[in-house]
Design goal:
There is one protein chain. The protein is mainly beta. The protein has one domain: Chitinase A, domain 3 (Roll), CATH 3.10.50. The protein has one helix and six strands. It has one helix spanning about 75-80, and strands at about 25-30, 40-50, 55-60, 65-70, 90-95, 115-124. It catalyses: [protein]-peptidylproline (omega=180) = [protein]-peptidylproline (omega=0). It comes from Lysobacter korlensis. This is Peptidyl-prolyl cis-trans isomerase.
């Protein structure tokens, strides 16, 4: 797998209440191929908890990008990555219903609003 020439992103603490809908912010506009719904994407990503700002997952920490079909990911990624172009960096703020469901849903992140910064490295 290719690796991003970029470094691990920093996620600034977000002020105000957690959003009720997906918030998509392009941090860097890509110029490569566009990700389509249902595509397989290769990404580097960082995820933090909206309220605490604590990191819960990062491909950067493993020093390896990851490739997977969008169809198998949380709804916030299925909705938030299409339209993104290779070379881009996008921030997604995913409320619980677009992440791991309501509190008590059986996942350690159930009920949490999650913030991801995603670098799109490739699409298939």
């Amino acid at each position: 797998m290719s690796d991003s020439p970029r470094t691990k992103p920093e996620i600034d603490f977000l002020e105000g209440p957690a959003p009720e809908d997906l918030v998509i912010t392009d941090l860097i506009e890509g110029t490569g191929d566009e990700a389509k719904p249902g595509a397989t994407v290769e990404v580097h990503y960082l995820g933090v908890d909206f309220e605490s700002g604590e990191e819960f997952d990062s491909s950067w920490s493993r020093n390896q990008s990851i490739s997977f079909p969008l169809a198998g990911l949380i709804k916030g990624w299925q909705d938030g990555i299409p339209g993104m172009k290779v070379g881009g960096r996008r921030q997604l703020v995913c409320p619980p219903h677009l992440a791991y469901g309501p509190a008590g849903g059986g996942h350690r992140l159930s009920g949490r609003t999650l913030v991801f910064v995603i670098d799109l490295l490739g699409v298939k």
